[in-house]
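Deliverable D5.2: sample structural annotation.
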Amino acid sequence: MTEQPAATNGATPLLAVSNLDVYYGPAHVLQGVSFEMGNEPVSLIGRNGMGKTTLCNAIMQIRPARVTGSITFEGRELVGRASYKVAGAGIGYVPQGRRLFASLTVDEHLRMAAPRRGNHRWTVDAVYELFPRLGQRRKHGGMQLSGGEQQMLAIGRALLSNPKLLIMDEPSEGLAPTIIEMLIETFRGLAKEGLAILVVEQNLAMATAMAERQLVMVAGRISAETTAAELANDPEAQRRWLGVERG
């Protein structure tokens, strides 16, 4: 393992986080976080309470507390921009807990997020093709769905922004192993299409299945960068960084 995140090879990175500090009141949650990624899948892994969701919120500029440092997307600074402008720049977000609307049906969720004009890779019909189960449940309320169906809906909603980068916070949370396997295959297919993916996870099996490049977050810092193969075959590192073993 190396102790510092590797930079991209000379070209302008898709996403670059540099010396990022985030404070909630007196609490210094993120401390000097720096990493870059290009058009590839990357996993950020760590235990609960390590600052992973705070990093997602900082990138998306959701409820930002005091932030210092820089977050750039395709070379453009995101810190200080409105969340809708961050999304409009090309970043899709699947939040932890899905955050669906109880009063909206599946179809209403998707129609609300669908692009209004132009030719796009992702349309409501394309989402139903990706997740046929949602098509079968299109008239059901968002909170009437199973956990796996809710996650499909949250992913489909994010894809309708036709993003260049998809950030997913704990996508495996609360899901059965068979659903997790299905989602892994879905994400691999999206990555093959050229979609950059940052998956934020505490599930070691999913994180290592999703991406070869692994960033390890401990106590608000990127403490190490490694590969899926190295992490999967190093039980001591799993215990040291994550407190778990691959399951």
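Annotation notes: The domain at 15-99+158-242 is CATH 3.40.50.300 (Rossmann fold). Residues 1-8 have pLDDT under 50 and may be disordered.
The annotation will be released with the project's public dataset once the embargo ends.
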